Amino acid sequence: MNAVIGNVLRAGVVLSAGVILFGVVLLLFESGSTSTAGTLTYYPNQVPHGSFDVSLSGLVSGLAGLQPFSIIELGALVLLSTPVTRVLISIFLFALEGDRIFVYVTSVVLVVLLFSIFATPLIPGFNA
Questions:
Q1: What is the rounded distance in angstroms from the CA atom of residue 114 to the CA atom of residue 55?
Q2: What pLDDT is stored for residue 69 in this prediction?
Q3: 95 HSE (CA, 13 A, CB side)
Q4: How far is it, in rounded angstroms, from Cα 120 to Cα 102?
Q5: Strands (DSSP E) along the chain, which ranges?
Q6: 16 and 78 in contact (C-beta within 8 Å)?
Q7: Could you tell me how many helices (H) and strands (E) the chain has, helices first?
Q8: Percent of the chain scored above 70 by pLDDT?
Q9: How far is CA 9 from CA 1, 15, 62, 112, 125, in A?
Q10: Confidence of residue 33 (pLDDT cuts 50, 70, 90)
Q11: Which residues of 33-67 are buried (b: 16+ CB within 10 A; e: fewer)?
Q12: Mean predicted lDDT score pLDDT of the chain
């Protein structure tokens, strides 16, 4: 069981790093070495910092157009989904072993994770 979970975590991190690296390389080639600094300019009074669309529809259209920031965002989402995947796999592995208590405990952990991902941004004061 530990080997399976370790492999899932390792694969998630390696996949995420590969996707982010691809996005960074694409960003460098697309913007050129002279204008990269302008592309990465930080705008402290604007969220998101710049003109990049961080919505789900913006991500999908950006991936369809191979936009570097969308690819980097996908890599970050893969990294964020790795612990959730680990918990899901743990539930199934505990179920296969017949360990009902750990299935229940791990299911509660999954609910807390999903709540923190999806419900917390809807609570006033938690979104920037």
A1: 18
A2: 85
A3: 9
A4: 26
A5: none
A6: yes
A7: 4, 0
A8: 80
A9: 13, 10, 27, 19, 32
A10: low
A11: eeeeeeeeeeeeeeeeeeeebeeeebbeebeeeeb
A12: 84
Q: How far is CA 65 from CA 59, 68, 70, 125, 126, in A?
A: 10, 9, 9, 34, 32
Residue spans per domain, the chain: 2-122
Residue 128 host element (H or E): none
Three-class DSSP category at 99 = coil
Q: For residue 27, what pLDDT is reported? A: 83
Work out the pLDDT band at 59, boundaries 50, 70, 90: confident
DSSP letters, 16-39, are HHHHHHHHHHHHHHHHHHHHHHHH
